[in-house]
Amino acid sequence: GAVVSQHPSRVICKSGTSVKIECRSLDFQATTMFWYRQFPKKSLMLMATSNEGSKATYEQGVEKDKFLINHASLTLSTLTVTSAHPEDSSFYICSARPSTGSDTQYFGPGTRLTVL
Amino acid sequence: AQSVTQLDSHVSVSEGTPVLLRCNYSSSYSPSLFWYVQHPNKGLQLLLKYTSAATLVKGINGFEAEFKKSETSFHLTKPSAHMSDAAEYFCVVRVTGNQFYFGTGTSLTVIP
Q1: Most buried of A101, B5, B64, B110, CB within 10 angstroms?
Q2: For A105, which of B42, B100, B103 is closest by C-beta distance?
Q3: What is the CATH T-level fold of the domain B3-56+64-111, as seen in this structure?
Q4: pLDDT tens figures, A14-47
């Protein structure tokens, strides 16, 4: 149980284009989902917290207009990187907290974004 | 202030020998504590968690951790390392609500 999927697992795009990453909780409902960015050999950096049906809360320094987050249902959150640039290349990981009130985050397998 | 400190950025052990990955935390609240493992280019997998029940927590793959309030520690151990244990390990503290704090990670190398 408590499986989270991400799609795509890898994506390569040209500079200036937009990329959408999906995060799904497969066997549970998640009121809250988190989006992280991870640089090589580094810990996870929280980008934003999204709650179903409301606006995401972005961490300081994260551009909300560049990293659009939508959490339209209890099993799906999306992160759209708009007008991507090479410096946006990174490993993006989502996680989900069950709506049952569990304090555990369950993580997706990550998405490797490469911007050329 | 809340924080998590993983005392070793890198640990190297021989296969079959014990593993000890250290984690100290600072919290004004009664925290929930987690250990996650991350293999290369993968997401994080939950190993175990402490949520104010038994102080010795058993997890998957033979790992366990002991919550010691007096020492504000939550060290991860395994009696005998396996080659497949080589990965990055993260200690995470949940303080309240959606406030989670991540350690900087410990890279475990297992020598055959």
Answers
A1: B110
A2: B100
A3: Immunoglobulin-like (2.60.40)
A4: 999 999 999 999 999 998 999 999 988 788 899 9
